[in-house]
Amino acid sequence: MLPNAQGVRGFWSGTITYTPKGLAEGVHEFLLTIGDVAGNLAFGSATVVLDTTAPPLAIEGPTVRYTRANLATITAVSAPGAFVSFGGSWIEVDATGRLTTTVALVPGMNDIRVTAADWFDQDARTGAAIPGNTNEARITIVEDNRAPMFTRAPTSEEPLTRGDGALITGSLSDEIAPGVAGTVATLDLTVAGAKTQVHADGTFTTVVPLSEDDNVIEVLATDLAGNSARAWANVTRDTIAPSLAVDSIPSRVADGRVTVKGQADPGSIVTVNGAVVPLVAGRFSRNVSLSSGDNLIVVRAEDTAGNFIERRFAVGFASGAANPVLGLSLVITVAILAAIFAFLIGRRFLFTPAPPARADREGDKDGTSTENVEPSPKASGMIERAEPMPTETAGEAERVAGPSAREPELAEDDDVLKDLDSSAPDTLTAAPPEDARIGKLREAFESGRISRDVYAANLRRLTKEP
């Protein structure tokens, strides 16, 4: 117990602690009263505010955004009187509860945390503000200045077609930063101006209507940051058949083939009865064999798009019709055969064998043979060889046989002529009505051992005719 200034002793200092119970949210006023043993009183008051609700906080715009810039502007909205921090100092919002600031970005993903507080306490040691109730929001900003890429250029399965539509396919990839892949499914893709879906693997497929002739189809891919890539697919629609002109073809022929000629568009495929015919300077030609009777010739021209045109021609072939060359050949052949036949028949029936000579019969009676009679030098020296007849001579049998066939015949003639010479009659013998040598000569001719010329030459010698 200490004395006061007047020397009165007593307890003059102390700490009183009071904990209220069941306080509701809001402001609470407390009245403090203190008195001593003598009945002296002192009065005081305290205000206690119970605040357990954090201020509201929102970020204007999407929570995930893309930009090609390295700076981003962010606007936070809270309650008037609140303070907002973008990761740094606390800044009070304006009277409307809004606060706008600019933050720096790095390529790729940028996660930014925004905090709002309605009141602060103070650190007793450092004096730093300790926020009371706080609210927090996050925003992701992607700095992306890299355009998408076509990993497979847009193309059509049929760059040349007769159809009214083309199937366009391709694939895409995207990066938001070096080595950082983007989401291809978020790409905005248009094909010929029509929005087209990009699948998760980056592929896309769509059908584009076509007009006649060349179609240049633009494919545009744009990412969420506004970077874009363009590509084009070229498709030609051709529904017009190629031109085909065929030269005149007779409807009836006597020959066994016909020549098909004409012209078609360069680059087209020309077939005649299914066989491909080459085009030379736009023209074609092909010989077609015909069957006896009616024949159908089909000439077809087709372009690379599948358009085609056909020309059909009916051609009759009379296999028995008169043909000057063929007829002349037949006449010559028949004449040669008739001459050979006439020669063979004439040699058999016109030249009959002669009866034996009287001298031969008398010689037999006397015991003397004509074969022992020595031939006269004149007779043996007059034997002639007939030259072969020219092949142009019609009707003669010798025309059929060639020169090589005559040599053996002439060799056989030598034996016959020697036999004739050895049979020459003795000059002392009476002349017979017919020389036996003539009979042997005729027999050799009729048996085919000698030719007609040899026979005639020796007959003239034996009969002494000039």
Labels describing this entry:
466 residues, alpha+beta, Immunoglobulin-like, 4 domains, 32 strands
Kindly summarize this structure in a few lines.
This protein has 466 residues and is α+β, with helices and mostly antiparallel strands. Helices cover 17% and strands 39% of the residues.
Describe the structure.
The chain is an alpha+beta fold and 466 residues long. The chain has 4 domains: 13-50, no CATH class; 149-237, Sandwich (Immunoglobulin-like); 249-317, Immunoglobulin-like; 329-463, no CATH class. 17% of the residues lie in helices and 39% in strands. The chain is built from 6 helices and 32 strands. The chain has a 5-stranded mixed beta sheet, with no helix packed on it. A 5-stranded mixed beta sheet has the order 16-24-23-20-21, with no helix packed on it. Strand 18 and strand 19 (180-181) form a beta hairpin. Helix 4 (406-422) packs antiparallel against helix 5 and helix 5 (436-446) packs antiparallel against helix 6. The longest helix has 26 residues, at 324-349. It is rod-shaped and about 220 Å long. Mean pLDDT is 80; it is low at 355-413 and 423-431.
